[in-house]
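User: For a reading group we're discussing how well predicted structures match intuition. Take Long-chain-fatty-acid--CoA ligase. Before you show the prediction, I'll give you the sequence so everyone sees exactly what went in.
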Amino acid sequence: MPDEPLTATLERTVREHPARIAVDFLGRTTTWAQIGDQVSRGAAVLRDLGVGPGDRVALVLPNCTAHLVAFWAVLRLGAVVVEHNPTYTADELEHQLADSGATVAVVWEQAVPRVLAGRARTALQHVVAVDLSADLPTVSRLALGLPVPTARRTRAAMRGAVPAGVPHWHRLLRRARPLPEDVARPAGADVALIQYTGGTTGTPKGAVLTHRNLLANAMQGQAWTQAEPGTEVVYAVLPFFHAFGLTLCLTYATRIGATLVVLPSFDPARVLAAQRRRPGTFLPAVPPMLDRLAAAAEESGADLTSFRYAISGAMALPRATAERWEKVTGGIVAEGYGMTETSPVALGNPLSRDRRPGSLGLPFPSTRIRVVDQEDPTRDVAPGERGELLIAGPQVFSGYWNRPDETAHQLLADGWLRTGDVVQVEDDGFVVLLDRMKEMIVTGGFKVYPSQVEDHLRTMPGVRDVAVVGEPAGAMGERVVAAVVLDEGASGVDLAAVRAWCETRLARYAVPRRLVVLPDLPRSQVGKVLRRVVRDQLPAQTA
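Assistant: Thanks. Here is the predicted 3D structure of Long-chain-fatty-acid--CoA ligase, as structure tokens, for the group to look at:
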């Protein structure tokens, strides 16, 4: 692997494919040469705000051209990107911003008030607002001002009120001069990204990924897909703030000089409209997206046959979803596996008819795996036996931000990463996921940590105790279920009330979709709630 920073990938693509369209954002196109210029100016903007090597810069943005530009601009200065979900609550954002020590935040207008709400308890010195509509084609942007219901709804979805004194990213960019070429570039060993994940405990913590980690995974993806540079059209329907979307839809796509069709959120109708304008060839997605897109295409008669490949991750790919997608497109969908801590892809199915639905696939290039005893990670199990999956390779992270104890638990002394997932390796080397040691819930590709939902629900009047578990939900993966024990005489605790209570503090995907009332919760001899028993009892309960 070359000893260079991730930013060398962008510079090479700008140099080799300057006139190729880099980004199509709802119809507005930007070439790779223009992206290179905007990144240079963006880096100058950030340097004027005091950002230097090693400083953390928070990005609180949906997918848009500005997100891609800001990401590369931060890295160009040798600073560290910290990605955040722009729909997080004020409390969630405050915790992550305070933990990372970010000094500058580039924030979607709608999220600015939530970032400012906890600013005093963070190290933030500057908050810069991003107007999502500024990345639209001129005609579309002007249409937002029309006094018609459609324009008002679109404007409300894209724009947000920003307090006086908060500068705007696009205005700063227009006034900036390109960054001088002699400004020092980062090194491969430098930290590039802090990506928050709950890991095995549910407590959000930042996985520290270096330029070398991210570059390795982009190169591994290129070797795996055998993509010809300058030919692919990648649909960025996965959010850049998610590890899966960041690598497949941003760094890998840049590596291969692809055209990125960028959407601010997943909407099947919007994807089909983009497909008519600019047919895609490669789609990274989670199974519910594939299922909904295939259904929309079947219903509308839309042509998806340009998609040769789709890569499915973040949750198990149901066989029915895979068959439906391949029937509609005539292409191949292959399942992959990874973690935030592996940048994130570590295993994948071949992009050929040899792929095996329901399997995690084979190790990525330069990636090693072991299957070990669940209680003793130093002891390998016999071939064919189930055990915990360990991973080693150039994409494995260097640890958690300011969490040495949790790093030591997750990352063994010899460089092997504990995944917490129980697998079995078949005779031909394909890896099959059997179970999770950790009890997180995966819904729609997002991870929900039961303890966080439980901690909040225990503060709800009328709730004496609670256990949060996942139950199968078809293409969505799992559904969040709250099993509660009520105080004597409690009233008004129904699903609507529980959802309303949770929506004030939790991300929308973590809000329970089902409520079960129990007389008591099953516990171990030491008093720990047995979530697995609760989950097993769910079919016998009524909602």
